[in-house]
Amino acid sequence: MIDLNSTSVRWTITLNRPDKANAINMEMLITLNEILDRAKQQPKLRSLIITGNGSVFSAGADLNSVKLNNELTTTVLWQTLSDKIAELPCLTIAALNGTLAGGAFGMVLACDIRLATTGTNFFYPVLKNNLLPQPNDIERLVNLTGLSTAKLILIAGQKLNAKKALDTGLIDLMCERSEFTDNINNLSYIAENTDSISLLAIKRLFQNFTSNELKTDAINAVFNKDAVAIKKLKQFSSY
Asked: Residue 181 and which of 49, 55, 80, 117 are 20 to 30 A apart at CA?
């Protein structure tokens, strides 16, 4: 249900449950977390792509599984997955091959870049289903789209098409399906052909651009190859 295609510099994670609109069950959620744990240990990894098989990226949490066991909606594994993606030292791209819904928003919002095909729709029906969004989803959604659009999605339950998502900042790029692979390759090319320490430093500066300590460590890591500074950037929690 989760496929991993890997080279030394790029990992592509594919949600592969098209008959169920790539809805995520507990087994898939555990597997995704395990893959992210392994990805963090790959020193040559420069890009990680998350996509789906078929016409839908993901319908979110598998509601059939939820009916049998509510643990799927309350487990911390959703949050840990999103945080693991956000903290990876490599470039992360959500390559949305189709509609994004519900709990699948978390890992997409945590990525550095969001690319979507023109037919992609976006909706997060937590209120309709008497659920809550993942803990960091509201903050990340507001940072991308602004308060008004975030409320339209989460409180009014509105569905956005790809054009609206692009206009509001929810996604960064939109393309035809025929151009999808080329766009992924273009977006990841520089990261996959650059120095890992520079990539790591820039990612950390985006994550905490108010920290003077981090700025100093970034300079020492990139220009002086200072081992202590590099270690701190990798850990990041020290800031």
From this structure: 80
Residue 235: Cβ within 10 Å count? 11
Contact 174, 114 (CB under 8 A): no
Judging by DSSP bridges, how do beta strands 173-175 and 113-117 pair with one another? parallel
- 32 lies in which domain range? 2-190
Residue 25 shares a structural domain with residue 119: yes
pTM of the model: 0.95
* CA-based end-to-end distance of the chain: 36
Specify whether 58 is located in the same domain as 155.
Answer: yes
**What is the tens place of the pLDDT at every residue in 149-189?**
999 999 999 999 999 999 999 999 999 999 999 999 999 99
**Polymer length in residues for the chain:** 239
Taking the C-alpha atoms of residue 24 and residue 87, their distance in angstroms, rounded to an integer, is 22
Give the tens place of pLDDT for each residue, 18-62.
999 999 999 999 999 999 999 999 999 999 999 999 999 999 999
The Cα 138–Cα 222 span in angstroms is 33
Domain count, the chain: 2
Residues 217 and 118 in one domain: no
Is 2 within 8 Å of 25 (Cβ atoms)?
no
Q: In this structure, what token pair is assigned to residue 180?
A: 């999808």
Find, among 140, 136, 152, the residue nearest to 114 by Cα. Answer: 140
Kindly give the interhelix angle for 227-235 and 212-224, rounded to the nearest 10 degrees: 130
67 is written with which tokens?
Answer: 């009916």
**Cα 6 from Cα 26, distance rounded (Å):** 23
SS (H, E, C) 171-195: CCEEECHHHHHHHHHHHHHHHHCCC
